Amino acid sequence: MDLRAIAAMPTDAEREAVDGVLGPAGEDLPTGLRAAKTHRTLLLPGLHALQARLGWVSPGGLGYLCGRLGVPPAEGYGVASFYGLLSLRERPAAFAHVCDDIACQVAGAEQLCAELTARLGPAEHLPHRADAPTSATRTAARWMRSPCLGLCEHAPAALVSVAGPEPRACAFGRASVARIEAALLGARPDTPETLLGGEGPRRLLARAGAVDPSSLTDYQAHGGQRALRCALELGPAAVLREITDAKLVGRGGAAFPTGRKWEAVARAPEQPHYVVCNADESEPGTFKDRVLMESDPFAVLEAMTIAGFATGAERGYLYIRGEYPLATGRLAHAIRLLRGEGLLGPDVLRSGFAFDIELRSGAGAYICGEETALFNSIEGFRGEPRNKPPFPVQSGLFRKPTAVNNVETLVAVLDVIRDGAAHYASVGTAASPGTKLFCVSGRVGRPGVYEVPFGTRLDALIQLAGGVAPGRRLQTVLLGGAAGTFLTPDELTVPLSFEDTRKRGASLGSGVVFVIDDTVALSPLLRRLAAFFRDESCGQCVPCRVGTVRQEELLARLATGGSFESRNAELALLDELGQAMRDASICGLGQTATLAIQSALAKFRPHSGAKP
Amino acid sequence: MTQPAVELSVDGASVTVPAGATLLRACQAAGVDTPTLCWAENLTPVNACRICVVEVEGARTLVPACSRVAEPGMTVLTDSPRVRLSRKLVVELLGSSVDMSRSAEFSRLVSRYGAQPERFGPKALTVAQPVKLDNELFVRDFARCMLCYKCVEACGTDAQNTFAIALAGRGFEARIATEHDVALPDSACVFCGNCVGVCPTGALVFKTEHALRAAGEWRESEQTVTDTICPYCGVGCTLSLRVQDNTIVRVTSPSDSSVTQGHLCVKGRFGFSFVEHSGQHKP
Amino acid sequence: MLWGSNARETHPIFFHHVLKAVHRGAKLYVVDPRRTSTAAWADGWLPVQVGTDIALANSVAHCILDAGLEHRAFIHRATEGFDAYARTVARYDVDRASRETGVEPGLIRRLAEDYARADRAMICWTLGITEHHNAVDNVLALINLALLTGHVGRWGSGLNPLRGQNNVQGGGDMGALPNKFPGFQDVEDPAVRARFEARWGRPLPARNGWTLTEMFEAMERKALTALYVIGENPAQSEADSQHTLELLRGLEHLVVQDIVLTRTAELADVVLPASASWCEAEGTVTNSERRVQRCRPALSPPGQARDDIAILGELSLRLGYDLATPSPQAAWDELRSLSPMHAGMSYARLEELHGIQWPCPDEQHPGSPFLHARLWSEPLLGPRAPFIPTEQVEPFDTLDASFPLRLTTGRHLESFNTGVQSSAYVWPHPRKTTLDLSPHDAARLGVGEGEQVRVVSRRGAVEAPVRLDARLRPGLAFMSLHFPDQVDTNILTINVTDPKSGTAAFKAAAVRIEKLLQPPDSAGRGVALP
């Protein structure tokens, strides 16, 4: 391809960073289209390497990376500017992302941000615009606000990265100015263990907290790899049957039957097949997959291997959000051990089955949790969702048949295969067998990850988590996540199953149970939700790109009393907007971006100030 | 070889289209006027604007007619309340954020769907910004950019394969950008102007046209459009010359031309000034 | 397979179609001494030394035969002369070819295999094949490959010279050749001539006329003393331009009909201002795929400029024959009555079908997307297609110690030939003729980017700024010819012509580079060597 780049030379450090991902540069320029097509998937890893080495993606570094990959530099820029964790303007090597999302907001994030501004100077904005105006007085910012970092149980949270030859990144809870400053100077602030609670049999969390996440031996001592051995004995057809019989459905939010998905991939004539683990857990208030991966990394990898075996795939990709450095490190370590022991590779357990897993990091884009956006992200394109059909089972990663599953879903597979569908269904409801993880956070006594059988009542779960503080009144619960539903106190008897929530016009979503007591002002919370969708819209389709902005403006008018029409007219407009966004947006983000807010406005009259 | 046909229902009428045809084609076959903004016959559908959405029985959401492939037995509604509402909102969202005044199709849609973009208030955020003037051939007036992706496709695999521009940023900040947002002459741009040729809103416009409009001298009623053949290499591209006052003010190519498929190179699109009469036959 | 063609820059819209196919999985091979922007898209780029195309083509044939991949059935049924050809190419083993052409053996084999095994394969070429002293042999070498593999006469397979000007093909179609009447009918065929004489009511010359080269030779020996030039700028477009200028100046009478006052027109005794045929006049042109297309007037011509057809009519009248200045459509219909391959192309049909590819013998005929289908008909229609063996011959302008660098010339995307048309619009980048050198040669010569140097050939010298181009191999230099007023590249090129076609060897000059000790007094203007 006759690609032209602007005349900017890479520094030695930039060359090193890129060559570290792509291998040493050869003499020859890449020729032809096909070479470029096969290399493009290394674009995001290359961008990560530049960001980690220099703290930003410079014109010279981007040009060098694109040149080596045969990616048009303008497209490389388009990809780089898509991600929140990448900067296209120079900034200090040590940089903090400070969460101000809903869980952190109710834990004092605004106060923290104000203190940080006083101490470190104003926050960065528009890091993804190389041409953003820079004021003469502006010194390079050292921090910026971030959407949910998935540490809601320890809110407020921060993610600090220090670029350099040996880059470091750490995410931590209980963030304070002092702890953030220490981290910027290279310290690693500790974060307490996540509280793992629940009721009934512990399946998904069976090993979490009990097993050494860095030891394959310990994993095996705790029953690890038994499911894989069972699967290899059963054969692919029987594995598919068990998964179908167990009525396992996806826990990423869409609740699609896993067995049907896997069967469709297994049957697809087009080759090769792929397995993708969606670990881009980014829904505000969600952290269960992080906890699973941090505490039991071998489990998700074992389940992916089973998925590969059942669907006829030889390659799996685990796409984890970039904000999870601890989980990423543990998974990378686990993959190395598995390869060393022949549990991944050309001949898994000497069964003749070949399977390997590649770990890919996101770079700060909620939309990449949408499965087709995730494929685009892995392939080196902007994380814009694709129109469906075709569905991933026909045309997924690299346009090949792909089974894409959420972390929790995959871990559930282990129990189904090891113990059989019938045993799996011994708890839960008839339509939703088994157990489910919930991320309980907000104004609740013991925030953490809770495993309960499907059908457990929401109020019972909240009681398990300690309820609201003594003397406080529960105002509402956001169930399911940013795209979920606000429930009133008298709706908390709902049994937590797919079918029961659906009946009440709600959904389990990603398992978020965000508890809000009477100290919390709803209006800023709703506006934060609206801002989240506006920030995270990929911008591809009109209803979502503009609609999320209009929703935010409308909430601002309602909150400040600056309504140019009556409240009812505003609500009617929001109603029409929501309907059109649900109907006409390309993907789930736009389709659900008004749900939670509409449910709140229908049930409450949020004030801008806190309730007494 | 006869292609297998697909039979479906559009607004109650039975239509037959070849296998692989889109719902848009089925709608056209049924004589149903389906609006499009980001679709063009010479580009791959991106289904980004969503103005063409239709209701397919059994589908949870509306579907874009421009890219959805027709399936046997589909029941399609193109004027249901859901469809009308979504189309109206798409028009209002675009109209409230982008200067769509140069799109005749858009004005038609405003009245067709009774859209009131002003519903979103006088302070609604827009993409208003200064015009980018960085070369003598065409200008970029991104206050008019609706992000239809057409220019990116024409610069990319659908025609020019130069990839000088791409979508950058995200959400409402998403924009058409060169590498690192540099000026066009510093970018990979080879000035074929195929982006200008496909732009539906006047965001990309010939410098000549921009200057005439700025001076209030753009008079469409006095203009003629004549098809002829490019004077340069032997490929034989059809040029549509738009002329005002015996001066060429815009050059395009018909998208149904088998030679060009609507696309030209820099010489064909901009290399006409040698017949501008000030320079020709100088005494 | 693009051979000697930088279509990405010289035929951009044709290349769009190529790239569509490449995106769908078609393989692209590019044979070019330079790693052009076309070559950058190729699955295989064969960096051939200038002027060694026949060695390469014969070696490709050698590999095909070696691997048994020739199309035996086609060769047997539709060709002749295969045995002699096979004997010739037998001497072009890859090792020899690799030494001569500079292309690595594996690449030659891969091209041979991919070309021979493809269901459909096309060879396209441009001036990299034809602007050589052995232009016709070069073309024959490529035709031989198509015959060897049966890649001819079928949809999607064939041989395709990409025409450099918008109506080169049309000029030939209309009989603007010394040996042809319109429709490629032989001047020396009495039956053909009789038909034209009957239609035009005048006796016609029974002998072929002169080619362009022969005309210049005739000027040289004063056998040609008056010249009527329509829409050409030979003062700047011919190789060895100093010599051309002398010949033009030596004419007794020079008439130039053009739309602008070209360098040639400046020399003329009479200048006839013409309208721009593509936008100020009515007519047809024929493109590279033999598609006859309508041109229409969009502007009225300036001043006293008139349509070519009106000027010719007027001139003819003064010479004693009343053409009656027909309308362009009437002239076209007359052509259709005389040229069978155009007979079916009424203006109405040209309009309706957006042009028609000849031959189109009648008004029901859809036109012909490809030629030579007869080679596949059962039984074979017409004569067998002959293999004509060709041999590698070194370029005439040989390299030696005094002239060690090979200079080749070509076009850039934004410009066209001598710049008469393309210089008028404001290209946003600097436009000038540079001497493009490989960084290796530049370092050896001690010259740097932007440095003004003297380029010297056996015919003359020009000064031009150096541009470093990593896509050039050492030993190869490149110059465009778009700005003759700034750098008259054709002072350097050699006016040795292919005896069979009369084309000059613009693509292969021998030069040396001299550092300038002092800044030049007039930037870039050339001087003739004694």
Topology:
The complex is a heterotrimer of chains A (612), B (283) and C (530).
Chain A: H1 12-22, H2 33-39, H3 43-54, H4 59-69, H5 73-80, E1 94-99, H6 102-105, H7 109-120, E2 143-146, E3 158-162, E4 168-172, H8 177-184, E5 196-198, H9 216-221, H10 226-234, H11 236-245, H12 258-267, E6 273-279, H13 288-295, H14 297-311, E7 313-320, H15 325-340, E8 345-348, E9 353-361, H16 371-379, E10 402-406, H17 407-419, H18 421-424, E11 435-442, E12 448-453, H19 458-464, E13 474-479, E14 485-487, H20 498-503, E15 512-517, H21 522-536, H22 542-560, H23 567-584, H24 588-592, H25 595-603
Parallel strand pairs in A: 1-2, 5-12, 6-7, 6-10, 7-9, 11-15
Antiparallel strand pairs in A: 1-3, 3-4, 8-9, 11-12, 13-14, 13-15
Helix pairs in contact in A: 1-3, 1-4, 3-4, 10-14, 10-17, 11-12, 11-14, 13-14, 13-15, 14-17, 21-22, 22-23
Chain B: E1 5-10, E2 13-18, H1 23-29, E3 53-56, E4 63-64, E5 75-77, H2 81-97, H3 104-112, E6 138-140, H4 150-155, E7 166-168, E8 175-177, H5 194-198, E9 204-206, H6 207-214, E10 224-229, E11 238-244, E12 247-252, H7 266-270
Parallel strand pairs in B: 1-5
Antiparallel strand pairs in B: 1-2, 3-4, 3-5, 6-9, 7-8, 10-11, 11-12
Chain C: E1 2-3, H1 7-10, H2 12-23, E2 29-31, E3 44-46, H3 53-66, H4 72-78, E4 79-80, H5 82-90, H6 94-101, H7 105-117, E5 122-125, H8 127-130, H9 135-149, E6 158-161, H10 168-173, E7 180-181, E8 185-186, H11 190-200, H12 212-220, E9 226-230, H13 234-237, H14 241-249, E10 253-258, H15 263-266, E11 270-273, E12 283-286, E13 291-295, H16 308-318, H17 328-338, H18 347-352, E14 356-357, E15 385-386, E16 405-410, E17 435-437, H19 439-445, E18 452-457, E19 460-468, E20 476-480, E21 494-497, E22 504-505, E23 509-515, E24 527-528
Parallel strand pairs in C: 1-2, 1-5, 2-3, 4-15, 5-6, 9-10, 10-11, 16-20, 17-19
Antiparallel strand pairs in C: 7-8, 12-13, 13-14, 16-23, 17-20, 18-19, 18-23, 19-24, 21-22
Helix pairs in contact in C: 3-5, 3-6, 3-7, 3-9, 6-7
